[in-house]
Amino acid sequence: MVVLSSISRGVEPAAGRSGRRPMPHPMDHVLAAVPVFWLAIFFLAPLGFTVVFSFGHATFGGVEPGFTFDNYRMALSGFYGATFARTLVFALSASGLCLVAAFPVAYFIARHTQRRRNLAIGLILIPYFSSFLIRVMSLQMLMSRGGVAEAVLNALRWHQGPLDVLDTQTAVFIGMVYAYLPIAIVPLYVVLDRIPGPLLEASRDLGASRWRTFLFVTLPLSRPGIATAALLTAVPMLGEMVIPKLLGGSRGVLMGQAIAAQYLQAQNYPLGSAMAVLVLVLVAILVTVLARLTKGFAEVGR
User: Fold this and answer.
1) What is the CATH number of the domain that holds 79?
2) Average pLDDT of 173-190?
3) DSSP helix/strand/coil, 64
4) What angle do CA 219, 223, 229 make, to 5 degrees?
5) What span, in angstroms and rounded, lies between the C-alpha atoms of 231 and 92?
6) How confident is the model at residue 145 (pLDDT cuts 50, 70, 90)?
């Protein structure tokens, strides 16, 4: 009874009757300092330099310290502005399509593959046993002229003549969905598998149809999986560079390629830094929106 009453008052049971929390061991601070030090050196410090460089002035192969918004104006106008907008549209639409395609697959695995569940998950994860570059190059071969995709589409009479999808924005979109679809399935499966079956049965016993049960029970309880899947797909898509390079050519340039070109070819570090900061701002906004999507889930799941 003491434990139950302490929980109801919001007091941790582990604190005991005295109400004092156990003192952390000095070794705990050491172990916590290691990842903090690692992140500070290899993430926060480069991020700080990137932000500082984004307000500087470009010199030949260097940066002159200063404070100007010209780099951001250039990054949001003309070719770079169109690239930025295209990257945002591609990331959101491709991530949304991944969620739409992944949800029924994850639902089927969670509800209808009790005995062969591990096999189904294994088949989904098999592509990740090979190199990402090899998989994208394989897709490039499939979509090229005279490839398998062209032969299949011509045989089914869904397309006639040579297939000219390679080196287009359509090829980039297909490649992004293809590459990140399995990542969306796994978190959706995990959260759908944890929804209690009796809860769904109770909804049907109370007169709800299958569609209403899905809409008002399954879908709200799957919010963490939806948010995680969106995060794991949209964030890397915002910085994707390999897929646009191999499948889009000069017509499918996204922000990742533009940033790499400024750093490696043009050596315009301030402009490249401004582009990188804009992508980081997009990531922060996306994370904030997804965090609000899952807000209050603990209360819903209880």
Assistant:
1) 1.10.3720.10
2) 93
3) strand
4) 115
5) 10
6) confident
